[in-house]
Structures are given as C-alpha cells and as structure tokens.
Write a structure and sequence with these properties.
Layout (H helix, E strand, L loop, with lengths): L3 H6 L114 H14 L24 H9 L7 H9 L15 H9 L1
Helix pairs in contact: 2-3, 2-5, 3-4
Length: 211
C-alpha cells in the first residue's frame, strides 16, 4: 500500500482511485487533496484534516471519521454507509447524492452542507412528529423488517419501517436509498435519530422521534 503520508509530505496532491481500504490515516493532513474514487472502506481517518478534499465517488463505507474535518469537502456520490461521523465537521461540504445510510452522527456538524437537505422537504421536527403519530395510530403498519419505500398509501395496509414512513410523508426518496433519504428528512440538530435497524423496538423508535 502506498505511504500516502510520505507522498503528501513530498508534495503529491492527486491520489485518485487508490485502494486505501483499512488504512490507518489517523490525524493525517490531506487538505485540498484529490481523493476522487478512492477506496477508503474501513479506513481509520479519526481527526484527519480533509478540508476542501475532492472525495467525489469515494467509498467511505464503515470508515472511522471521528473528529475529522471535512469542511467544504466534495462528497458528491460518495458512500458513507455505516461511517462513524461522531464530532465530524461537514460544514459546507457537498453531500449531493451521497449515501448516508446507517451513519453515526453524534455531534456531527452539517451547517450549510450542500445537498444534505432535500429542496422543499418538510421541517424535520414536524415530520418526526407526523411519523410518530402515524406509527402510534397504526402499529399494524409499522414493521422494521419491511424495507418499504413509503410509496404505498396507508389505506393499502402495506407495512414498512420508520424510514419508509419518513419517505412517505416527507416527499419520497429522491433517487436515494430509503435509509439515506430518511436520514436527510428526519435529522434535526440535537435530536436523536431513530434506529433503522430491523431489530429496533417500536418503543425506542418512538422515544427518539418524540425527543
């Protein structure tokens, strides 16, 4: 595997399409680096400096980005599925069409992130209340093991998970995966996200939505 720290120190700024899966890159400075299409699955990028980095189409599945700074980074079409974004700075980052499924977001800063919110989407606190109210009123239509996309009308008696109902009431998936779209729709600063896991209990989901 390439020694990216050494290469960066020598002045290299273009690392497109490299395989850095599982790499230990804790605390690395990759400011304004071209990392488009790079495989960073399971990489440890805790406290890394990725300000302004080009991460278009990068695979950050299950990556550890705890405390990393991605201020103004371009994450268009990137996969962040399962990534740990605890205390990560994504202010001003471009998240257009990024996969945000199952991410961990405690303390994450999404201030003015581009493509994070869907245009015309409902106010998230109001949507959380609407979804919770529907699940409480129709528990028979809530099933965490059913990955419905929320397209079916409630009167069709088609059950789906909390993410599916968020998409149903929030205006659809907009070509995103259900969990990625639901995250964008339900995320509210300072509010816990309901679990999209199939084993999550209805009680804990409702408690998160009502918090």
């Amino acid at each position: 595997m390439i020694d990216i720290k050494k290469e960066y120190a020598a002045g290299r700024r273009d690392f497109r399409n490299l395989d850095l899966s599982g790499a230990d890159l804790r605390g690395i400075d990759l400011t304004n680096t071209n990392l488009a299409g790079v495989n960073l699955t399971n990489a440890n990028l805790a406290s890394a400096n990725l300000i302004g980095a080009d991460l278009v189409g990068a695979d950050l599945t299950d990556a550890n980005l705890t405390g990393a700074n991605l201020n103004f980074a371009d994450l268009t079409d990137a996969s962040l599925d399962g990534a740990n974004l605890t205390n990560t700075n994504l202010a001003g980052a471009n998240l257009t069409d990024a996969d945000l499924s199952d991410i961990i977001t405690t303390g994450t800063n999404f201030h003015e992130a581009v493509g994070f919110r869907f245009a015309g989407s409902p106010e998230p606190v109001a949507l959380r209340c609407q979804v919770a109210t529907h699940i409480e009123a129709h528990p028979e239509l809530h099933d965490q093991t059913e990955w419905g996309d929320g397209k079916a009308a409630p009167e069709c008696n088609t059950p789906c998970c909390v993410a599916g109902w968020a998409c149903h009431f929030g205006g659809g998936c907009r070509n995103q995966t259900v969990p990625s779209a639901a995250f964008r729709l339900l995320w509210a600063e300072g509010k816990p996200m309901p679990s999209f896991c199939g084993s999550a209990s209805r009680k804990e989901i409702l408690e998160a939505l009502r918090a």
